[in-house]
């Protein structure tokens, strides 16, 4: 993180400091829910919905590797099928301490369906001591979305 | 359904009549949660877990068709990341009245990770007036699972 | 394999002994084309098309495990986009000597789009000394296909 | 396209004008190979490999929408299992005249495994009269790749 927190503050203007704290904490805790016997790479995720609900997700892998569903898509289907399609922010955590985790392209595509360009994506390292926040459109520019069909 | 209900009764011996009624009802209702603007093909699903919880799922599609997550996988990741990896039965519904719906191979593969061979799969038509029940191993024989690696 | 080869012979009636030999050989060789740094589980595949072409495939994995494409789907997209949508047989190989490999449910679903119920699936062990042959419909019974929509 | 072609020229410095012409032409032609009965949205793709081979791809869909494999991933598995893992450029075409097509996030993730940050992605409209060229890293910034695990 650069010292300049202004863009990040603007991005998170719809999220209170308390909500942000909860969101990070829950994203870190969500790793406990991971089923990842193949990669042994646990990922946790939390989506804060417009209704102020925190929806947790974790990666669920499969013996056929291509069957794996990431933490972000897990949380997304839970939110959507829970009737919550509008989201304020998403936070994602992995176990690595040295780097913050980044959502894969499959999940960016899945989220694209529901997120605005300004949707804040909060990427954490293993204990939340490092944080990177980006607006969704910076992670999937020139995206292929509902309007592309 | 044949008139001979004995194999089905045996298969569902861990599920009470009341639970079965609930399971079907919830699988039918779950279609309301579907996000399927591309196929306009709503699918609902309900998993009954060992803890007697009913976990609902519905299909969530994407502008990139390959990004779609079916109802069964939706319910499965909810159950697994809800700490419930042991399941008593799954029920699935579509909108077609004339036929019962069948899980796709992707979902069979995903379920394979958690289901025993005798896990009952209950396939419904649009109002639940038709039902087919099969043990999981009949739907994915000679499966590729955790032991195959 | 049981000693009774009659069902298998019937299944392979559109394939000559020479073609069958080639098909197995190529499915075994195709493992060399595998990109599988994550699972280290190489899979090879060969589809014999109606035009008498042998189309090879191998698994291609991804750092995001869910992005992996199996050998069977690799060969299938090559055949389809090569203008060859009608197939006589498919053979699949893994590295395990003790068991023959089995296609995952994702690939069964993908193949479903192009295969008839009698399409022969030839499953091999690591050196082709063990072989199991099944008609496609036995591997994906009650399938979800184009007619299900 | 802006009038300033300098960044694009730099990006395509390893591709001759003749190769670029061929690449676009083949990406447009590749749409003919599409199997897309569900979306009726044909996509074509061509990868130019370091060996100066043009590898074509097209989207192949499935009755289970999540089974679809896009044109880009089709071409990618063909190149990789053809022994060609180093690529000079990729071109993609759709049928829309008004906009250039954009690769979905799933395909960006798949390509990530093999592409450098400067890998040029050429996006075309329906007849190639509009072109947008971007370096891969601009389409999937902060990517999740082999080093992330
Ligand atoms: Zn992901
Ligand atoms: Zn499915
Ligand atoms: Zn497979
Ligand atoms: Zn794509």
From TrEMBL, chains A, B, C, D:
Any one of the GO CC terms: nucleus
Catalytic residues of the enzyme = 72 (proton donor)
Which superkingdom does the taxonomy of this entry point to? Eukaryota
Entry coiled-coil feature ranges: none
Gene3D superfamilies recorded: Cytidine Deaminase, domain 2
Domain CMP/dCMP-type deaminase, by residue range, is 18-147
- GO biological process terms held by the UniProt record: cytidine catabolic process; deoxycytidine catabolic process; pyrimidine-containing compound salvage
The protein's required cofactor(s) are namely: Zn(2+)
Q: Which SUPFAM superfamilies match?
A: Cytidine deaminase-like
Kindly state which keywords UniProt assigns to this record, in alphabetical order. Answer: Hydrolase, Metal-binding, Zinc
* Catalytic activity, EC: 3.5.4.5
A Pfam family hit: dCMP_cyt_deam_1
Q: Where does substrate bind?
A: 59-65
Return the CDD domains for the record: cytidine_deaminase
Protein role: This enzyme scavenges exogenous and endogenous cytidine and 2'-deoxycytidine for UMP synthesis.
The record's similarity note reads: Belongs to the cytidine and deoxycytidylate deaminase family.
Any idea what this protein is called? Cytidine deaminase
Q: Source species, please?
A: Zygosaccharomyces rouxii
